[in-house]
Design a protein that fits this description.
Length: about 280
């Protein structure tokens, strides 16, 4: 009997030791700047799904290397569920803005009631970029339950970027009361905010004010990306040709544009144009 107890204690001891060593090596691999090592550790944790490993993946979202952060993010998306949401909730407030941005994307992918609640809570973050990203996610998820919080941001947030993203989110959710705000932001000095406003207006159909506002934006701005997006949205909202609406052809507006912003924004526009295409 005593011998069996000793054997059991030895087995438990070595089990704990191996688990500790496993966690130690995973941590070392994930803290390295080597993307291959990060990938190996991430894949192991996906298989094991232990809480310590999930916590290490969340910590890796602060890694200096984009590739390591990306591997950790994808691993957390694969694991998903309450386990990941719980770890993010425990660590969100302590992380830097880069990690928080990744966390919001993971929560968007999980798309559960708990993950949605965390995204809503991120609307109160001190960093305007995180509040804006949280608002964007809620719009893409058509989170009707967050409408009151988004309206509050539209009216009260100090950041034009956050207010514009919140207004777009409400428009995507079918709230067309934000129309005047979106139209007003077409005259903002920041290109990204103008682009956000055009995206938001793409979801407001059968409104007599939207078409003239987009035509005015097309005429007043010389940026290629913004003009391109205005044309895409106008095509979506009306059967009238651009030439009939503006007196000039689509080619005219695009060829006589400043291409300086094209490299910076084309990726975002491609993604958002797909959102526009899905607007109904």
């Amino acid at each position: 009997m005593r011998k069996k107890v000793v054997i059991l204690i030895v087995i438990v001891f070595f089990g704990v030791l191996l688990a500790s060593l496993n966690s130690f090596f995973q941590k070392k691999l994930l803290q390295s700047d080597n993307e291959i090592m990060c990938s190996i550790a991430s894949n192991i944790i996906v298989i094991q799904k232990d809480d310590k490993g999930v916590g290490l993946l969340v910590d890796t979202l602060e890694n200096n290397k984009w590739g390591c952060r990306f591997k950790a993010m994808k691993a957390l998306e694969k694991i998903g569920g309450t386990q990941v949401v719980r770890e993010i909730e425990n660590k969100f407030s302590k992380k830097n803005s880069i990690a928080k941005w990744h966390m919001i994307l993971i929560l968007e992918k999980i798309n559960s009631q708990d993950s949605m609640a965390l995204i809503v809570s991120a609307l109160s973050d001190n960093d305007e970029s995180i509040r804006a990203e949280a608002a964007r996610c809620l719009g893409d998820l058509k989170a009707h339950g967050a409408a009151d919080r988004l309206r509050y941001l539209v009216l009260n947030d100090k950041s034009d970027l956050v207010r514009s993203e919140a207004a777009v989110a409400l428009a995507k959710s079918g709230d067309h009361e934000t129309k005047k705000i979106l139209i007003s932001y077409l005259d903002n000095d920041t290109l990204k905010i103008k682009i956000n406003s055009v995206i938001g207006l793409a979801f407001i159909k059968n409104d007599s004010d939207v078409i003239p506002a987009l035509v005015g934006c097309l005429r007043k701005n010389n940026n290629y990306d913004l003009r391109y997006l205005c044309i895409k949205v106008l095509r979506r909202l009306t059967s009238e040709s651009i030439e009939k609406l503006t007196g000039k052809s689509e080619d005219f507006w695009l060829k006589n544009s400043d291409n300086s912003g094209k490299t910076l924004y084309v990726g975002n526009i491609t993604t958002k144009s797909e959102q526009v295409a899905g607007a109904k």
